[in-house]
């Protein structure tokens, strides 16, 4: 599941923990005593493999997957007891068979993600264990915004978030103007409605929402919610560095400050600025490439990580073969087990690129300039350092008239002279007209 807010490298997924499932199968086999603290046979048979589902997130397009960081407190402000190695946040995605609120993000609300799930060792399917969560930094950090599963929608570029319970009939919706910090309740019906969904226009930039569902008699209900009047003022754009500004600079990040080897900086409304956003897009402020880290590399073909964050090792367990190919003329490359993730723009830093090795018997090409060429260049540089431009051109004309090809670049204190290769198909006359023809392509700049 990709986060749809211009974070092109952030994905989230659910998987079955095969290792734990195999361990449970062994413990629950006939004749085997159930281990203390493990899932009971009855529970395991009831849940099947779904009982071992976990959620992971990647910030480098699948190069490295990690657990989702759980919130520190619940929606009521109580601390959440979660041991890091045994507990994390698990979320229901679109592929979930359960009727809970889906994983949701939009391209116009930078960094905001909504989802339902639970904190624990596995993803739960019990309604009384499911809560609603929000992230405003693309999935890096999360907060619990409501107890129970909810349907939700985002409007006004992320300035309005509307939620309603999807597990029991209700007459109220809740909305937040500060991305989940505080909530306001609003009664939209005189009778309880089983809410099926809340929608808005496709760009998620408006303030009018549509809620639909069924009443107790099974009749369809459609309600329009106009929240454009809940803002007391419009947002005013000023320098985001100003402490009193309505906007801020924001750079999405993963476990490091960069995504896919670069850092995009955007302008977005501050969380506490409860103002109506004008109908316009705020483009990225800038893009800066970053030094490479481990996150910028993934395992090459025929290599696999020994653990989630371990090194990439050969699948067959054999050491890397550095021997040259049968046909080797100049150089050849040997993979170190890694390749840069597609689209990654990092530079320098951690280098896991392929090694470039010389073929056996390869002779190094001489990089020493031959004496005639060295003498020519030295003479030109020496003369160019002390002669004025006009005098220097006369010297060049003389040299051109006695050569077949001239290729050089001169930089002097008086002029910047660049001469491109000029083939001389016939001997030049010694008059001024001939010299002028020979100097076509000569560029002089003060």
Walkthrough of the structure:
- This protein is mostly beta strands and 446 residues long.
- 12% of the residues lie in helices and 30% in strands.
- It has 5 helices and 29 strands.
- Strands 4, 5, 6, 7 and 8 form a 5-stranded antiparallel sheet that branches.
- A hairpin with a 7-residue loop joins strand 11 (172-176) and strand 12 (184-187).
- The longest helix has 16 residues, at 371-386.
- Mean pLDDT is 79; it is low at 26-46 and 402-446.
Topology readout:
Blueprint (H helix, E strand, L loop, with lengths): L10 E6 L1 H10 L13 H7 L5 E6 L6 E3 L20 E4 L12 E2 L7 E8 L10 E5 L7 E5 L2 E6 L4 E6 L6 E5 L7 E4 L6 E6 L8 E7 L5 E7 L20 E4 L11 E8 L16 E4 L1 E2 L4 E3 L3 E3 L6 E3 L16 E4 L3 E3 L6 E3 L5 E4 L12 H16 L2 H12 L7 E4 L4 E4 L12 H7 L3 E4 L1
Parallel strand pairs: 19-25
Antiparallel strand pairs: 1-2, 2-3, 4-6, 5-6, 6-7, 7-8, 9-10, 10-11, 11-12, 13-14, 14-15, 16-17, 17-18, 20-24, 21-22, 23-26, 27-28, 28-29
């Amino acid at each position: 599941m990709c986060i749809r807010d211009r974070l092109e490298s952030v994905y989230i997924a659910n998987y079955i923990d095969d290792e734990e499932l195999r361990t449970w199968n062994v413990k629950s086999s006939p004749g085997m005593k159930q281990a203390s603290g493990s899932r009971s046979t009855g529970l395991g048979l009831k849940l099947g493999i779904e009982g071992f589902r976990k959620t992971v997130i990647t910030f480098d397009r699948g190069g490295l997957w990690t657990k989702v960081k759980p919130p520190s407190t619940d929606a009521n402000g109580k601390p959440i007891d979660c041991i890091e190695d045994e507990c994390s946040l698990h979320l229901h995605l679109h592929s979930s068979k359960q009727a809970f609120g889906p994983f949701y993000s939009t391209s116009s609300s930078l960094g905001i993600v909504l989802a339902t799930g639970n904190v624990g060792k596995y993803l739960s399917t019990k309604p009384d264990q499911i809560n609603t969560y929000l992230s405003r930094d693309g999935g890096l950090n999360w907060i619990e915004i409501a107890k129970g599963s909810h349907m939700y929608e985002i409007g006004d570029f992320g300035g309005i978030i509307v939620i309603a319970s999807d597990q029991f009939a209700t007459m109220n919706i809740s909305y937040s103007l500060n991305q989940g910090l505080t909530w306001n309740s609003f009664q939209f019906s005189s009778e309880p409605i089983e809410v099926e969904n809340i929608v808005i226009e496709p760009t998620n930039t408006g303030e009018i929402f549509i809620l639909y569902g069924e009443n107790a008699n099974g009749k369809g209900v459609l309600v329009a919610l106009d929240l454009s009047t809940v803002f007391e003022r419009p947002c005013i754009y000023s320098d985001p560095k100003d402490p009193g500004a309505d906007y801020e600079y924001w750079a999405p990040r993963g476990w490091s400050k960069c995504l896919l080897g670069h850092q995009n900086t955007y302008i977005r409304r501050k969380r506490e600025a409860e103002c109506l956003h004008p109908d316009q897009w705020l483009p990225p402020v800038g893009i800066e490439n970053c030094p490479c880290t481990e996150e910028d590399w993934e395992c090459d073909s025929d290599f696999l990580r020994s653990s989630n964050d371990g090194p990439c090792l050969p699948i067959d367990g054999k050491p890397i073969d550095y021997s040259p190919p049968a046909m080797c003329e100049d150089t050849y490359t040997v993979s170190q087990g890694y390749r840069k993730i597609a689209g990654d723009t990092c530079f320098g830093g951690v280098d896991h690129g392929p090694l470039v090795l010389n073929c056996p018997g390869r002779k190094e090409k001489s990089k020493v300039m031959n004496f005639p060429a060295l003498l020519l260049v030295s003479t030109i540089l020496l003369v160019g350092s002390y002669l004025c431009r006009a005098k220097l051109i006369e010297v060049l004309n003389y040299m051109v008239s006695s050569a077949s090809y001239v290729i050089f670049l001169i930089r002097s204190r008086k002029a910047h002279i660049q001469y491109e290769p000029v083939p001389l198909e016939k001997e030049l006359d010694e008059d001024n007209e001939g010299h002028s023809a020979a100097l076509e392509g000569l560029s002089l700049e003060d």
